[in-house]
Input
Amino acid sequence: GPDHMAALLPMCMGKPWFVSCRVGGYWGLGHGLGASLMGIIAFTVKDSFNVLYLSDFLEAGVGITLILIGLYGLKESRDYYKHREKKNDDIEME
Output
């Protein structure tokens, strides 16, 4: 979904296609294994406590993570434009 695109896009922008594919592959593998592990744990302990209660905290964790990824993307973008401006200034000085 769109949240997955929002997570991957900042890590892939401006990179060669093969680097972006590797990032997506590793992310997908980690995401799949993590979701599977969480599902197994939830299934195992479902009678011990209210899994729906825990779900709210996990959703908040996902939201916080997406915000942090967005901030990382903004930092990367700013660094890119600073580097680009410096490169242009160096060219004009020659």
Remarks:
- The mean pLDDT is 83.
